[in-house]
């Protein structure tokens, strides 16, 4: 604020000039000449930026009331002009006085606006200052309805034009001037008619803003008005500039205080997630940006990761050499991009994925005390223009301060992750794990251990002596522990009987010594060597439960997916009992298997079946199906037992398609080896079946019975008559959720039943080579069946022949041609509905 306050001596010298000029008031013409050519002189020779206007050489000021003009004869026009000049001179003097009374821009700008409006008899005025950081014009105070901060581009409107050109402008018809921005009036409802605008310059010629005056109340804005506005702004420029500098310094001082407190908080924090949140929150606030992301380098995966990203919730990971963040990390150089989409390094895919729009980017490397880059911090979308050099230096200084805290927190996070991983692994183990210290006190016991030992919680066992739990029938375990402590070698004990809570448990035990390895340097024969020393920590007991539940799971895993077995066991004993349920049953059978066995012999047949079943079972289990049993060369499986899914029908169909696809691939290998290929048929049906668990505790098996099972078996057999490989019932078809290439082929009464059922053929396993023109063939077949059901035998035959022409291997079309010819010669009864009665299985 130095130089803004006028001392008493300065004002006295000015008043002396005024008094001296009283005696020369006769020559008012010289006064006007003096006003028309104003000169600026420094008030303080040591500070040439503080000036007053020497527009007062021929004016008179009342000594009693400095703000009141001395009365003169109004009849003299030159005297009137002199009074006006005197009034303006007083106003210019009072500008410095009034503005010196404020320490903030808010007050200064408000006062300056009031002075300008009063002096120029205008409706309103606005003083815009230049924000160098944002490269914008802004005003903290405006008259009328505007009492908030106004910001505008430097090249927008009349004010922007005046700022860029550095020359004043008089616009007495705003709407006819191309420079006028009409959008402001539309937003506010205000009608701008005339504009007077002048740049605010310091003595050195630096333009620090513009003053804009709107709508003169009486008459039009003149050149005299522009000169007066120029004199006013020149008088106020130094005070405004000085206050800007002071406020900027105060703002930085406040920022540094806050920053120091934040850095102190960060350095005292060891949780990585909490540190990342604090760092990014402070960086966003410090640079007035929209978002911030702090990436740290994961040396194990060569990825940059962030556990917290402002504006998002998920963890971000990306290769540490890609994108802008990767460029900064690998180069160690700051990247400042004012327009993101104009830079080839920017990946717009993130914006498309998140819906965010990136405008500007500032990315700075985070370097530790050893000069190693450990990450990068990225700021997005500064709210006021692009990021500048000051932003770069501030962000670099900030990251330098917090790099140590980040490294410490990352190290703590790594250790914590290792600890969590170890604990999680321990708790997820199906074996019981109990650790003892050197005093044989129990230090840890995982969930499986608590369950096996029949202990409700860790509190009941931790820090207790091992003798309290391994006593009586289990005392022999302590003998083994003692032996391991002496020998420091593992002991494995298989199929031992333990007793906890009055219940016997069959288990395998493994007793291991616990020790840490300490590395020490020593001199041996004048050479420094590293010696590893083992330090005893205690012992560990691992208990594997191999009781009835374990045996059952092992047995079940032989004929069902392990996940299904786990679900079955989790359901309890009631799941194992017999019950009626809905399921999709699958039957498959190898065609001409009897002939194959004669050709291959016993050994070859077994080898063939083993290889065939290995492929088929994998297809079934991949879809969560349960293999029920092998019946010779046939396979019986089900989807929906013992645990149902909401898409068991689709799982069954997908499994059947996969079985045929894999068989075709296998056949290609067999043909290449000169071995005869295989063929098979598959039938699927969905319905109610009865399932039951039969066997002993050491060997259990499921069985499925009921009409639903029988119909699936009949459909598998029907594949031969319809020259199909996959047939499904209408009950399965109606519940399918997926989209498949399926055609309805008939409505039949299977052997041993009286009710007809619709059957469909699945064609998805075919390729264009094995079934050409599939879409056209399916369309012709559908039309042919429609005519067949309507007893239009000739037209049906013609349509089926068209299908056969498109695919000569579609033998099903030939089947229907034969049926049509049969019914043409021997028509069905009048109540015939198209149902075909099967005479054999």
UniProtKB/TrEMBL annotation:
Q: Where is it located?
A: Cell envelope
Superkingdom to which the source organism belongs: Bacteria
The family note in this entry says: Belongs to the adenylyl cyclase class-3 family.
Annotated organism of origin: Desulfonema magnum
GO CC term (a single one) = cell envelope
Recorded GO MF terms: adenylate cyclase activity
Tell me a GO biological process for this protein.
Answer: cAMP biosynthetic process
Name this polypeptide is given: Adenylyl/guanylyl cyclase domain-containing protein, GAF and PAS domains-containing
Per-repeat ranges for TPR: 777-810
Q: Where are the transmembrane segments?
A: none
Q: Name one Pfam family in it.
A: Guanylate_cyc
What are the UniProt keywords, alphabetically? Cell membrane, Membrane, TPR repeat, Transmembrane, Transmembrane helix
Q: Which segments constitute the Guanylate cyclase domain?
A: 584-716
The record's PANTHER family line, in alphabetical order, gives:
ADENYLATE CYCLASE, TERMINAL-DIFFERENTIATION SPECIFIC, ADENYLATE CYCLASE, TERMINAL-DIFFERENTIATION SPECIFIC-RELATED
The UniProt entry, under CDD domains, shows: CHD
């Amino acid at each position: 604020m130095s130089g803004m306050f006028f001392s008493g001596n300065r004002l006295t010298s000015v008043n002396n000039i005024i008094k001296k000029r009283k005696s020369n008031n006769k020559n008012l013409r010289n006064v006007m000449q003096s006003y028309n050519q104003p000169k600026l002189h420094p008030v303080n020779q040591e500070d040439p930026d503080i000036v007053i206007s020497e527009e007062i050489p021929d004016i008179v000021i009342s000594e009693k009331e400095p703000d009141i003009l001395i009365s003169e004869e109004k009849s003299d026009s030159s005297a009137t002009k002199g009074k006006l000049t005197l009034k303006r001179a007083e106003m210019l003097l009072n500008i410095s006085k009034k503005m010196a009374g404020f320490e903030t821009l808010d007050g200064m700008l408000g006062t300056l606006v009031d002075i300008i409006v009063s002096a120029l008899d205008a409706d309103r005025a606005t003083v815009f200052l230049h924000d160098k950081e944002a490269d914008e014009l802004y005003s903290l105070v405006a008259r009328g309805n505007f009492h908030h901060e106004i910001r505008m581009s430097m090249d927008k409107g009349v004010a922007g034009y005046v700022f860029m050109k550095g020359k004043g402008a008089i616009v007495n018809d705003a709407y006819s001037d191309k420079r006028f921005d009409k959008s402001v009036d539309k937003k506010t409802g205000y009608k701008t008619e005339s504009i007077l605008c002048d740049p605010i310059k310091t003595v050195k010629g630096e333009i620090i803003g513009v003053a804009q005056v709107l709508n003169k109340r009486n008459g039009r804005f003149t050149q005299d008005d522009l000169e007066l506005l120029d004199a006013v702004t020149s008088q106020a420029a130094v005070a405004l500039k000085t206050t800007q500098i002071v406020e900027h310094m105060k703002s930085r001082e406040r920022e540094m205080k806050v920053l120091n407190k934040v850095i102190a908080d960060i350095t005292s924090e060891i949780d990585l997630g909490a540190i990342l949140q604090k760092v990014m929150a402070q960086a966003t606030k410090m640079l007035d940006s929209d978002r911030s992301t702090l990436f740290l380098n994961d040396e194990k995966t060569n990825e940059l990761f962030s556990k917290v990203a402002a504006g998002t919730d998920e963890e971000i990971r990306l290769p540490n050499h890609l994108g802008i963040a990767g460029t900064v990390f690998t180069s160690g150089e700051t990247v400042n991009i004012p327009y993101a989409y104009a830079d080839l390094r920017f990946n717009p895919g993130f914006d498309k994925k998140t819906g965010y729009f990136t405008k500007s980017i500032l990315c700075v490397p985070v370097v530790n005390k050893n000069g190693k880059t450990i990450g990068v911090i990225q700021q997005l979308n500064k709210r006021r223009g692009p990021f500048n050099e000051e932003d770069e230096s501030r962000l670099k200084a900030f990251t330098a301060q917090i790099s140590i805290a980040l490294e410490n927190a990352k190290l703590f996070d790594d250790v914590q992750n290792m600890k969590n991983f170890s604990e999680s692994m321990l708790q997820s183990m199906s074996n019981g794990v109990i650790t003892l210290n050197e005093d044989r006190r129990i230090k840890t016991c995982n969930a499986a251990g608590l369950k096996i030992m029949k202990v409700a919680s860790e509190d009941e066992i931790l820090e207790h002596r091992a003798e309290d739990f391994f006593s009586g029938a289990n005392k022999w375990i302590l003998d083994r522990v003692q032996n391991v402590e002496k020998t420091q070698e593992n002991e494995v004990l298989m199929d031992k009987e333990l007793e906890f809570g009055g219940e016997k448990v069959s288990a395998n035990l493994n007793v291991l010594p616990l020790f840490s390895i300490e590395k020490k340097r020593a001199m041996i024969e004048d050479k420094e060597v590293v010696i590893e020393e083992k330090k005893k920590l205690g012992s560990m007991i691992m208990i594997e439960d191999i009781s009835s539940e374990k045996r059952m799971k092992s047995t079940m895993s032989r004929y069902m997916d392990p996940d299904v077995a786990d679900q079955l066991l989790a359901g309890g004993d009631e799941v194992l009992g017999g019950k009626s349920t809905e399921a999709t049953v699958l039957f498959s059978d190898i065609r001409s298997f009897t002939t194959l066995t004669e050709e291959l012999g016993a050994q070859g047949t077994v080898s063939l079946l083993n290889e065939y079943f290995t492929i088929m079972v994998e297809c079934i289990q991949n879809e969560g199906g349960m293999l029920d049993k092998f019946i010779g060369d046939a396979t019986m499986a089900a989807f929906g037992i013992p645990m149902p899914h909401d898409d068991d029908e689709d799982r069954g169909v997908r499994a059947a398609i996969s079985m045929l696809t894999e068989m075709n691939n296998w056949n290609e290998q067999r043909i290449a080896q000169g071995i005869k290929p295989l063929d098979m048929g598959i039938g699927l049906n969905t319905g109610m079946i009865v399932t039951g668990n039969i066997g002993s505790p050491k060997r259990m098996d499921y069985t499925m019975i009921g009409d639903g099972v029988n119909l699936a078996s009949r459909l598998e057999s029907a594949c031969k008559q319809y020259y199909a490989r996959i047939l499904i019932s209408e009950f399965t078809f109606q519940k399918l959720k997926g989209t498949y290439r399926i055609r309805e082929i008939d409505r039949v009464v299977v052997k041993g039943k009286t009710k007809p059922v619709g059957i469909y053929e699945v064609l998805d396993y075919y390729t264009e080579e094995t079934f050409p023109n599939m879409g056209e063939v399916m369309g012709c077949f559908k039309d042919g069946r429609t005519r067949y059901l309507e007893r239009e035998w000739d037209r049906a035959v013609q349509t089926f022949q068209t299908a056969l022409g498109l695919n000569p291997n579609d033998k099903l079309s030939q089947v229907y041609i034969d049926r049509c010819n049969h019914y043409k010669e021997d028509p069905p009864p009048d109540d015939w509905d198209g149902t075909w009665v099967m005479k054999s299985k």
